[in-house]
Amino acid sequence: KKIYPTQGSIQDHEISITLARVKGEKESRMIVELLASATRFLVDAIIPQPVSCDSKFGNKIPWRKSLSDALEYAKLDFRPVMVIIWMDGCPSCSELIPQVANSNEIAKMISEEFSAVALNEHRDDVKRFSVDGGYTPRIYFLSPTGKVDTRFYNKWDPEPEFKFYYPSVKGIVRSMKDVVEAYPDRCMASRPCKIHHPKNDHPLLRK
């Protein structure tokens, strides 16, 4: 409630001015907040927002947050890396992604044997993964040091022009088993293997 100063009341007059200033500041903040909300709404409507890995691939599989994170995690205990390249609006991706997300076998193997990351085709760091073209989806297996190992591709239901494309989980699991055999657990002088690594001592291994 606004307080009107009476004649000769300087204190009341000062209170009225203060209240008016506070009211003005509140109204200004409200206007700024409304404008900010409207701007965010327009930006979201015009610019397609990236879809997070978790929203498309579920939370059953322990995906790493980025390629650099996946590579760093792999080096900790010398495990291979699995990279899935996908793209919004890709029909084949829409078919394969739910299969991968719901596969208990893939989830178990990644948790125990791999460092895995799913990358959108439009990311800058995906350019290095164009071994035989830029189609989607495609899956690469990397050595623990981050080098693409071209020995591992879809050999069971292959598409000659798209070697690293897997139409089903079955082929992915077979390749994963081959990769595990090629990169067995082993201790190194400067880095213990998965069995002997003091996992609770490193922040990346607690994620």
UniProtKB/TrEMBL annotation:
Keyword Signal in record:
yes
Q: Does the keyword Signal apply?
A: yes
Tell me the ranges covered by the Thioredoxin domain, including all copies.
Answer: 41-178
Q: Which InterPro entries match?
A: AGR/TXD (IPR051099), Thioredoxin-like_sf (IPR036249), Thioredoxin_CS (IPR017937), Thioredoxin_domain (IPR013766)
UniProt KW keywords: Signal
Q: Which domain of life is it from?
A: Eukaryota
Extract the Pfam families matched here.
Thioredoxin_7 (PF13899)
What name is this protein filed under?
Thioredoxin domain-containing protein 12
Organism listed in the record: Lygus hesperus
Gene name of the record: TXNDC12_1
